[in-house]
Structure prediction request, 440 residues.
Amino acid sequence: MKEFLKSLGVKKIFFGAGNRNAPLLKDLEEFELVFGLDERSLAFEALGLAKISQVPVVVCTTSGTAVAECFPAIIEAYYSNIPLIILSADRPLALRGTRSPQTIEQDKIFGKFVRTFWEGEPHELDAKLQVSYPLHLNLFVDQEGVGQKKQSRPDQQILSDASKHGVAIFTEGSGGYSEEFEKITRLGLSSYNEIHSGLNKQGSILFEKDLLKAFSKGQVDYLIKFGKTPVTKLWRLLNSKYQNIAVFSYQSDYTGCFGGERLDNLDRFSQQTRPHIINSDLSPFLEEFPNSEMSLIYNFINKTENDAIIFLGNSMPIRYADFCKNLDRKYIASRGANGIDGQVSTAAGIARGSENKVYAILGDLTYIYDFTRQFWGLPSNLEIVVINNFGGRIFERVESDERIILEHAHKFDELWDLRLHTLKPDRDETNLFWKRWINE
Ligand SMILES: Cc1ncc(C[n+]2csc(CCOP(=O)(O)OP(=O)(O)O)c2C)c(N)n1
Prediction:
């Protein structure tokens, strides 16, 4: 990839923060790198530079809506014949069409507005490739190792084997599955319900870490997914570590991971004995770390009105809100493509369509991405709550390149005269909470 880009004369790369494109950095260090957040803006900056210099300029993005954000600059580049290059990181081909997390169909996404489209693995980029601009290179980055997949998942026979244990995962779109929940509970299956599932029931496994522990102890043989693609990290692990776990998608064609099958009814199950899966105790953590992000979100949600709608930003807010098992509220999130773009506007639309109070809990970068919406005034029933940890701290959790955290020093309340509620977490408390919680 490096030699190919050099052969085109590329010198500068605008790098949009993201986990899927981060592994590409090791091959891009010889170029001048500019790190940034908003891909729409990065693409326009690259366009300006390419226009004045007539030298090809690259924008490197993560997967999902981040790629689509480059579209307006691509259109301008197309009509003005500007050498703009979009280098988008994509899931490996094996995950295309599976709706695995943050996977969208990126091939030929810019349609007729790019003159060359190429996709493949980064090492396949060859200096002999003839290109015209604008150019879109879509690169498969196999972080999961799904390309080396050897086994196939067990089929539906496993459901009638009383010695096997199943976990039902209820996520967004599960509001109508109360009867199914009761039935699988009676049959002895375990359940794990994500906060935005829409199902007003508490699962037998409360916390993600206990779910993951049950997997690492070998207590689970199969999964049934109710609703859309879950948030839990487990869904990424199903593409790597847990490729042998059977996965069924209830009344839906998408498992959200590699392989698995659709399940139309719950007739095949036999009664099973639920293994002892421990539920961790959260209260000592809330007491010991009252200024951690988890505790601040927990307390904030519990103080909202009973009929409030909580809109959860992607990144850590939706994950930390899952600690708060308060089922009296309605939770909404944009989990179709997991973008951090347009979140203030999405919340504004939700508030327009509701009489209830809406609280949008967003990370600081997520807020910055769409904060211009606030200049035009917000619906009176909408409260924006920014959890300001001065950067994209999710990238610390996944131990990614620290440059993509985009650390900053903005304290929003002092910068702009906008109606805004900021939560100010203590970084050490958050990190200690997390470290102990995960390792306990
Ligand atoms: C449009 C878009 N661009 C990039 C990403 C990749 N991304 C995921 S989370 C994240 C950082 C979010 O930071 P922040 O909102 O501050 O939340 P925190 O990680 O601190 O919880 C980024 C850039 C994305 N999901 N969507």
The chain has three domains: 2-147, 153-263, 283-439. The radius of gyration is 23 Å.
